[in-house]
Amino acid sequence: MALEEIERDKYVAMIKSAPKQLQAALLSIISSFSGSSKPISIGTCYESYHSFCAKVNLHALKQRAFSDLISELDVYGFIQIRVISKGRYGRSRDITVNLPKEVSDSLNKVILMEFDLDAVPKSRI
Length: 125
Known about the structure:
Blueprint: H1 2-16, H2 20-33, E1 40-41, H3 42-55, H4 63-76, E2 80-85, E3 91-96, H5 101-114
Antiparallel strand pairs: 1-3, 2-3
């Protein structure tokens, strides 16, 4: 139990000190994933990110820069990215969130507080 609390605190401390763009990207992934066990595409996360940035008056990055943020979150261990080859139709990257529900809920709450949106229900993001 103590190990889970230490891990949760580690992720929370890391995201509190992260830039706003990275926080918004993580929030969009967590809200797009919303407990589903299926991987989601970066395009789906980008749409969620773009709408969130419009709500909080944050300059939304282009999809290429957003993709770089996603790669950074993969390095930090918040998410896992898997490259899928689609033959002549190119490649795509699928995202899965491997964090426990308690950790993702506390990250969601912390990020919303960083944007002064702690009273907004999760479904409105």
